[in-house]
Amino acid sequence: MVVAILVFSRKKREEKIEINSENKDVAKSFWERDGKFSFSDIVNATDNFNVVFCIGTGRFGCVYRAELSIGQVIAVKRIQAQDTEDVEDINKKSFENEIRALTEVRHRNIVKFHGFCLSGGYMYLVYEYLEKGSFSNVLYGSEGERELNWAMRVKVIRGIAQALAYLHHDCTPRIVHRDVKLNNILLNSEFEPRLSDFGTAKLLGLGSTGWTSMAGTYGYMAPELAYTMQFTEKCDVYSFGVVALEIMMGKHPGDLLSSLPSISSSLENDLLLKDLLDQRLTPPAGQLVEEVVFLFESKLSHQQSPPKLLKRKGKAPNQEK
């Protein structure tokens, strides 16, 4: 048994050295913003991308959790670079979009981008690791009832609004995300939100027309995209409105959005705000009441809903907030 253990340990050390040797050139080409680690460090931290380190899968590949020897934890997205020609082109475009969009972006509510590289038929994107994962899993899981109170939900909505405002107004060129949804909002241990997944993002330069192929997720895309095929910041704002309503309602507002015309003509003032809020929580109180009401009125207004739709008591919130 002792001999077997020694042989196995030696074999593992040789494999580790071999991995480092194979990726020697890759490590040199690996771009890392702060220069704290190499691609070889990531390979070793994930046991050469063993499936046990995979924490999520998406349209273009798998995301791995890597705890580096320096104690830092990162998330690594691995994208297949060699498949059929169509898949290869789509994946490369997503890879390039994400790099182009995130290389110069720095905002507390946008996921931090550490670096990227190409190796062995795969493309790698490295980000900060967010402990809570996607907001969708939190909202629809047990934490949605236990920890995600009204104050937390308002905090998340405010953070994503600030992230989009930064992309739309403070970046040069301007960036439209094109796929704002709960799955692309990540949370750290303090429930601070980060907007992520810029694989379909589009940079709007001075000469850009906004004309584009269809992108986004059904249920979050602005309806005008179906016939205009022109993407602007307003399309992100529509998606953000859907997300904000979903956070407050605890479910996707699809039925509400599709029934707005009939609601406005037949029910008018009969729909109460308390009936729309997430029923797992007790209704908000104090200052939070005004914030929640304001969020609903502003978002439903953007979705072309009449202000009379929501009935409440008390003084109207300041519309300049």
TrEMBL record:
Location(s) in or outside the cell: Membrane
Give residue ranges for domain Protein kinase: 49-321
The entry's cellular-component GO terms read: membrane
Reaction catalysis annotation: L-seryl-[protein] + ATP = O-phospho-L-seryl-[protein] + ADP + H(+); L-threonyl-[protein] + ATP = O-phospho-L-threonyl-[protein] + ADP + H(+)
- Annotated transmembrane regions: none
Any idea which positions bind ATP?
A: K77
Q: Which UniProt keywords apply?
A: ATP-binding, Glycoprotein, Kinase, Leucine-rich repeat, Membrane, Nucleotide-binding, Phosphoprotein, Receptor, Repeat, Serine/threonine-protein kinase, Signal, Transferase, Transmembrane, Transmembrane helix
| Enzyme Commission number, as recorded | 2.7.11.1
Give the InterPro entries listed for this entry. Kinase-like_dom_sf, Prot_kinase_dom, Protein_kinase_ATP_BS, Ser/Thr_kinase_AS, Ser_Thr_Kinases_DiverseReg
Q: How does the record classify its membrane topology? A: Single-pass type I membrane protein
Query: What molecular function terms (GO) are annotated for this protein?
Result: ATP binding; protein serine/threonine kinase activity
Its principal location?
membrane
Q: Which SUPFAM superfamilies match?
A: Protein kinase-like (PK-like) (SSF56112)
The UniProt similarity line reads: Belongs to the protein kinase superfamily.
Supply the name of the protein.
Answer: non-specific serine/threonine protein kinase
| Organism (species) | Rhynchospora tenuis
